Fold this protein.
Amino acid sequence: MPMTTHSARFMAGMSADRIVCRGAMFLVFVCVLLVAGKSARANVEELLAQGHGLSMTREPEGYLLNALDKVQRERLDQAQTLLESLIQVNPDFRLAQLVYADVLAARAGALHGLGAGFVPDDELVGLEDEARRRWRSFQQRPNGVLLPRNLIALGEAEPYALVVDLELSRMYVLANAGSGLRVVEDYYVSGGKGGPEKHREGDRRTPLGVYFIQEYIPGQRLPSLYGWGAFTLDYPNPLDRRMGKTGHGIWLHGNPTGIFSRPPQDSDGCVTMHNKDLEALAPLLKSGNVPVVISRQVAWADPDDLARNRKEFLSLLDSWRSDWESLNTEAYLQHYSREFRSGTQNYANWARHKQRVNAGKQKIRLNLANINLFEYPEFPGIVVATFTQDYWSDNFQSISRKHQFWKHEADGRWRIIYEGTY
């Protein structure tokens, strides 16, 4: 049986990372995995014992990775046993079915190429990519101590945050417990066909940025493509609009019924996941306003480093608050960039507005609560701050949810480039 064109190309790019088994060139996904990290010998069985009850697909994924590990070690009989158990319970797991077919063909000495020649090239590319990313994400799992660098602080009213790594096709759930942030679960997810980063309507790319869940839409109200349901995100956010980005309808949603997983880049820009996983995660998300940080690649940081960043920015916010309370408009405006924009107001309009308002005040009291701080993906010089603002003056009172973007400017100071309520 002739090798598929893609398999021929893939094999041509390999050198010593080949395994000869039963007289045949045994490809299955071993070559893919060896490219990702040929020296790794992780204890894959540990994956089955991890998790905190949210992921419904952790065990199937653990079986798949365990089987792939057995393939690497040329223990095909053990891999076959694992895969048979896996597909019996999850017959819609397309990648597992393909690996199983290749293992059977290899044991029979009849494997002549990845996918045994039965899978179309375009589908094979997606399955190969899925195998690679699942394996890489397992190899690069955070050690239980490190945290996403983008999460500088989560407010006391934000019990959870989601962080998406598009390169690894992984979404991490972080809990904001009394002892601090910690990763409590992670999932395989799919992103846009065009990859990151979204720029315009219809480009089928997934945006990179800091977003918040807006509402839940049950699957019964949506086409079958969205599976169990969807959680909408607030793309485009103020920074996206400032940068001229267009488009809408970026959601976190399920897979079509009967599909265990989609290829890593298969949506029109949304983040998609297994229906059972989304259903199990839903109680954490239905309150709305859960932050979702979407990155090209998550950078992991030591909690002590994050604590130092958090202290710096909380001090910065407190200085802004104090200068506003002081009614020293000149000091207050020093916190705003000449690039400031909010709605139709630029810096000059904002400065005139604040000078006029403060002139009519005798006293201001300001309290900030539930402060969230995020380093913006792809823009380390931008920090997003959201908080509840309780404002009182002698002639006006309000409570609002404030949204700010701070920029590290050329003179070394952080200044606000956007401010609004949401």
In short: The radius of gyration is 25 Å. Residues 147-300 form a domain with the L,D-transpeptidase catalytic domain-like fold (CATH 2.40.440.10). Residues 1-42 have pLDDT under 50 and may be disordered. The chain is about 35% helix and 30% strand.
